[in-house]
């Protein structure tokens, strides 16, 4: 091609297109062609751009930077020039020039998210943290209007997860470092129940854009679901410093503090938010929960009352009042709750949680008023609503319990030999909810060598992880994976439990209590991985325990408790497994009958301490003077001397308890120390 031909418009366009096409495949050739073009068309902006791009790709960053900086001065209104200048400046380590270029770019194209995210990275390298944070937030805002992301979000929200994933995967193939797309993909995995992969993706999004508040908020919630409390706290602390004043960040941080057992800090956050805006029933309720746990009952009652003042239909706040056990809801409260229930049923039937909470609350209020028929009707309605919202298959659960009993036989235990972590720190209190475990924990936490914590989920998480390997087909059944555990495996799992629970230990006391009642299902596993841990079985009269559990609405976890037959079968399964373990490993588990603890507290406390190898201390008999935080439904009862009022409440409801009696079978008549006037 002669020079004259090169200069013609068509030929020039073709040459420029050819040079641009060579950039990725043969940058030196692209550079030579761009310079040839510039000889015949000196100063041509597009040719200069290609020359700069080629210099960058051949590694001559200094020349590329000088050329593109000059081009940006000459062509300040061309966004592509600022983008290229930013790229080469970033690669050359000139963060200041990269940031300046991106500031120009984002002013011209504020709706393009990539520029904002790159600006955030460059500002962060310069130590300009708040500006970087705001740049990330601007990138997120720009992404909210992206048609591809909007389409993927619609597919996800309408339940078409595969279609949404395909859209995002195609996008990430083109743009692998796109924080909003990565976060959205993480949400798809979370909705499918794959928390592990969801965590990995959302962490990646936050790493790419640390100022992506919505992604970090989601990450905190995923970490809470995974029981990774220290990590959740770290990210909640970061989020609380966002330049965008969002009260939700403070509330999320308070939620993490509650999970960590720091009720005081959480209540301080709630009070600050209420000082700014008092008409917030949800925050009043949260404050009530924290104050109740701290033992500040009068303040908790005031907080709950404020919640229902601002929102009379707030069922959980009413239940929180009723659930204090030492508070009686009067006739005016009953009238207000009945009016709220009528209003919700007529106008907002979808607010099922408020409705069933109101039924439970009315059940308790009418029980206190001795109107047992009306009370049972509300308890029954509340339980029926709640049962429809949870998944519990009593047949499947019973089969799992039988399989566990068949696994942990005396020969099997002997065949496993020594192993596990030898630390004697944990004291597990197991059994059914409402069986007296909180009382036992409070007694032990009053001993100078024992720290009370809370219901810790960590052993259940370890067991669930092992079961997941069975579900994935790696092992034939749970017994097979348990049998496969080597001494080193058992040591590692025991050490993992201690490490996971360390966050809940705030003193130098050598022993600590884990009172997760459902751990009765894992007594065999506990003994294998923590052979020197102690296990205390808190047991209560089956009718008394099961009825108390049935009329108690639990915030989470106790899916068996909303049907009289289900809870009776659950108690039967529990009693059978504990009996099997007693036979397989006599003396490994120490059993406390609630009725015996009530009738002769000192004798039972001395027996318990002997089992634990601890000296008797009088403070254990004055447990009600211990002001430690208590989160369970019995929090107020253990702040006073032995509580006996609830032992025979089930008798008032006996005409309606036949499904429970049938499920319990002979356990009522054979219960050790059953009440003398039990009609059975």
UniProtKB/TrEMBL annotation:
Give me the segments passing through the membrane: none
- Listed GO biological process terms: proteolysis
Family matches, as SMART domains: TPR (SM00028)
Entry-linked SUPFAM superfamilies: P-loop containing nucleoside triphosphate hydrolases, TPR-like
Under InterPro entries, the record lists: P-loop_NTPase, TPR-like_helical_dom_sf, TPR_rpt, TPST-like
One GO molecular function term of this record is: protein-tyrosine sulfotransferase activity
Which keywords does UniProt give here?
Answer: Hydrolase, Protease, TPR repeat, Transferase
Task: Mark the TPR repeats by their residue spans.
Answer: 179-212, 281-314
* Family annotation (PROSITE patterns): TPR
Name this polypeptide is given: Putative Zn-dependent protease
